[in-house]
Write a structure and sequence with these properties.
about 30% strand; 4 helices; globular; single chain; alpha+beta
Length: about 130
Amino acid sequence: MEERTWFSRILPGPHGAGLSCAEAREAARDILANLGTSPAGVDNVLTVVSEMISNASQHAGGATAFQITARAGTVTVQVSDSSLSPPRIQPWAPDTPGGFGWRLVNQLATTDIHLHRGGKTVTATLTASATVQA
């Protein structure tokens, strides 16, 4: 049986307009519609997408590229930015707003950070247990 792959890649708009969380989530929803993803799985992927784009905007000057790839059993989200500083989990401070995004991404997905000449690419891979309908 042939394994199908769905893929979407978005680059920021002209004039440095940047990539919004809404645009990235829309691309993710389009991809997930092809997989029969459970509502909880869709929520998990959209949470990861939102946090990664938001972190790139808040801490790294904005996303320079966004890619989502879905196959049977996995969804991979990649966000590139121009910073060489890797994301880091903030100390637990439940009374302080913010600082939970990267921790949440790491709870929902396996992550990898690749530094390159133009900055970094952060990859989060969600497995079937986090994305598909039972």
